[in-house]
Specification:
By secondary structure, the protein is α/β, with parallel strands linked by helices. It has 2 domains: 144 residues, Lyase, Ornithine Decarboxylase, Chain A, domain 1 (Beta Barrel); 216 residues, TIM Barrel (Alpha-Beta Barrel). β6, α4 and β7 form a beta-alpha-beta unit. The chain binds pyridoxal-5'-phosphate. The site of pyridoxal-5'-phosphate has 16 residues, from β15 and α10.
Length: 408
């Protein structure tokens, strides 16, 4: 048997069935009309935000990185809960605008921004986190054409990385940001060009469960921002300190100790370098805000035995849940939290492989998991599906299509 990850604690059972947002899994599937279905819980997101606000210093702004989950109703719901939004394309910008975000609360990071994307974002007043000197030149030229003062920040490629992070985005050669040693010259140039200088964006990694490492990285970010600003002789109106707050996906993962991070950050804020005294600080989080609030529901379409191994075959799979299948950056495949949603409080009685409906051995949702007996028609739940699920998976692969989505 292989263990599955921990099921987030806000899920419960009613009449034996998994409940979400006060409703049973089967009622939600009935409402959506079919499986596969992603369900995201407003209550779980709001509770997560409230816990985070109370743990973090009041001075800290919290931004949502919409790449984690751009589903329209969820994006709208988030707009009232967060202080800003991180976008990564003009497509996200359009979605954000529809959901009611103000351009001035929005910042645009990501390598390879096209001219038309810079044009749309600068014209609307979005902050561009510049990823290179070349991008800076293009942004300044586009602003001149538009006759506007562009809101520009520099994304710094720091020399440090976020220890223990699942995805490292700093430390050494990276396609992201400008190497720290070249940042002062660029910052000076932007200020001299009379841009609306916004400050720095320093993102060093994602999916860390190590509070000490995150606190250490935040201290490094503050020190680096202060040094760069001093060397360039510029102010830092805004410092986006990155994020990296992870969630427990796998067996033995422990939830992140946000109280520890909040206390450490408060100490940093109590003792800031003088050139950051007036700075507005922010973190940008995706999966931490929405990941555990979502569940992916898929229906069992077949049960079969091959060479003594039982396969529970579902109508979902990696085309909606690439990450849970182990094909989204994982080195070794491990089981996300999974359950038989229609028998949520039943005792496990068998060891099975839960697979998707795609004709590829990569389509695995649970390897050698210990489950209650699942029959054709039962619902399988994959948890931690609120981030990097529907929009981060190849929905059209093998002629499948998108899953349904519901915010409850
Ligand atoms: C610049 C940037 N911001 C935010 C995020 C969101 O990360 P997460 O969902 O792990 O919080 C990412 C993820 O890759 C990122 O690259």
């Amino acid at each position: 048997m292989k263990p599955a990850g921990p099921i987030p604690s806000h899920f419960s059972a009613l009449g034996g069935e998994l409940m979400l947002g006060g409703r049973t899994a089967s009622a939600l599937v009935d409402e959506a009309g079919d499986t596969p279905l992603f369900v995201y819980s407003r209550d779980a997101i709001a509770a997560r935000m409230a816990e985070l606000r109370s743990a973090m210093p009041e001075r800290l702004h919290i931004h949502y990185a919409m790449k984690a989950n751009p589903y329209g109703p969820l994006l709208e719901f988030m707009a009232d809960l967060v202080d800003g939004l991180d976008i990564a394309s003009v497509g996200e910008f359009e979605q954000a605008r529809e959901a009611g975000y103000l351009p001035r609360e929005t910042s645009f990071a990501g390598p390879g921004k096209r001219d038309d994307e810079l044009f749309a974002a600068i014209r609307a007043g979005v902050t561009i986190n510049l990823e290179s000197e070349g991008e800076a030149d293009r942004a300044l030229e586009i602003a001149r054409t538009l006759d506007v003062k562009p809101r520009l920040a520099i994304r710094v490629n720091p020399s440090f990385e976020l220890r223990g992070s699942g995805m490292k985005m700093g430390g050494g050669a990276k396609p992201f940001g400008v190497d720290a040693d070249r940042v002062p010259a660029l910052a000076r140039r932007l200020v001299d060009a009379d841009a609306n200088w916004r400050g720095f964006h320093i993102y060093s990694g994602s999916q860390s469960l190590d509070a000490e490492a995150i606190a250490e990285s935040q201290a490094n970010v503050i020190a680096l921002a202060s040094e760069l600003a001093a060397e360039a002789d510029v102010s830092v109106p805004h410092l986006n300190m990155g994020g990296g707050f992870g969630i427990p996906y796998f067996a033995k993962d422990e939830p992140l100790d946000i109280e520890y991070i909040g206390r450490a950050l408060q100490r940093q804020f109590n003792d800031l370098p003088s050139n950051l005294a007036e700075t507005q600080f922010a973190i940008e989080l995706g999966r931490y805000l929405v990941g555990e609030a979502g569940v992916y529901l898929t229906r069992v379409v077949d049960r079969k035995i091959s060479h003594g191994t039982t396969y529970v075959v579902t109508d979902g799979g990696l085309h909606h849940q690439l990450a849970a299948s182990g094909n989204f950056g994982a080195v070794v495949r491990r089981n996300y939290p999974v359950a038989i949603a229609s028998k949520f409080d039943a005792e496990p009685v068998e060891e099975v492989n839960i697979v998707g409906c795609l004709c590829t051995p990569l389509d695995r949702l649970g390897d050698d998991v210990h489950m209650p007996r699942a029959e054709v028609g039962d619902l399988v739940a994959v948890f931690c599906a609120g981030a990097y699920g529907a929009s981060a998976s190849p929905a059209t692969f093998l002629g499948q299509g998108p899953a349904q989505e519901l915010l409850v």
